[in-house]
Amino acid sequence: MGLSKLLVGAEEWCRFPDLALPAVKARVDSGAKTSSLHAFNIQPFKRGGVPWVRFNICPIQDNRKTLVSCEAPVHDRRKVKSSSGTSETRYVIKTTLGIADSSWEVEVTLTNRDAMGYRMLLGREAMSGRILVDPEGRMLLGGLSDTELKALYQTKKPSVGGLKIGLLASNPNLYSNRRIIEAGEQLGHEMVFLNIKHCYMKMDAEEPEVHYRGGRVLDDLDAVIPRIRPSMTFYGCALTRQFASMGVYCLNTAAAITQSRDKLHSLQLLFENNIDIPITGFANSPLETDDLISMVGGAPLIVKLLEGTQGKGVVLAETNKAADSVINAFKSLNADILVQEFIKEAQGKDVRCFVVDGKVVSAIQREAEPGEFRANIHQGGTASVIRPTPDEKRIAIKAAKCMGLSVAGVDIIRSAKGPLLLEVNSSPGLEGIEGATGKDIARMMIQAIEKKLQWQQGDTLSTAKSEVKSSSLT
Hints:
Among the domains are: about 5-155, Cathepsin D, subunit A, domain 1, CATH 2.40.70; about 280-340, Dna Ligase, domain 1, CATH 3.30.1490.20; about 345-450, 2-Layer Sandwich (D-amino Acid Aminotransferase, Chain A, domain 1). Helix content is about 25%, strand content about 35%. The chain has twelve helices and 28 strands. Strand 13, helix 3 and strand 14 form a beta-alpha-beta unit.
């Protein structure tokens, strides 16, 4: 004798116990082959070498503040054609579906259904052999009131002992970003990767908000770690300011990031604070090229694009004629440049001091490849552990402080005149320095947030929230 089939209407309440979703309203559609579940912020990862996927869902239609974070093993990746006729590749998970008193395992694809009328589409593969559909019926197995629905998600909401920290960046797979997420989770915090391009803002004097793709309102963060790539500086800093206006603590402020990214402004701030830098010249007109070359001591000299990063846009001009050609070539492209004295005795080496919360927590010496003039581990250079001198530590700490940065990578070059400061980086990479020193710098960054928010193991989320509001205003 076969299983007795459930008689359902065109819409019914489903549950997914494996995903901690006690109620999701589903459209029952025997015309659709596959089932789909609303999901956004979908992030693949591995657990024990097995592919998993992490995603968020706002399970209640038109309610963007009730959010559940889910994880599940990846069953498949599949190209699916939507009702609009467009195809997309989706993650497929296997999970337990419950309807009324029955439950069974189904395959579900993950996709953003925010524009649809239902958070769940129940397709015929999941219904086969178990369900009969009355297309004229609605909620034949029972409905839920708004009050009952709210109570279900309040009672099912997991208790959280740590902080909720957002990592505002562009690439979740970058070593530094993965390490920060990992370190925060190891310390018991809830870590959320926020893609800068997926965030947008509501500017309101009484209730400023940041929304995430799919409409989720980001109103429950304790802290944000901005790691903004140079091409996203303007918008990333605007988002950082918006979070700050909402009372969220930002590990580096928008103002500090902005001025550190402006090479000319940052160098002016440094020498105004009596921090020694290589002799540097700047001009807007190509007519002043000869005097510009002369003021930094002549060739060899360094020509730097103001917008360059990670060693890109940095040229060594070995003769005055070469310097004149490079400068005028850049000027013909309307590019802003700095001209800087070449420190020959450094022999292609510099020192990177990593500053966290006013302390040099680690340092490495970076050495250029043979034939190169500047150390750059992003382009094949090498890194080795060193002990920075007291003067180098002093310069690094003072530079981070005058920029207003809680976390900074400070680059120093050793010259015959003593240590000179080259640059202050507001989003320093972790791979080279952690690999060379073995230090867990990502953990130190999370601990700096804990210290600022006066959070300790055992604190509740509500305690941390109250600390956020007061700390973010100081």
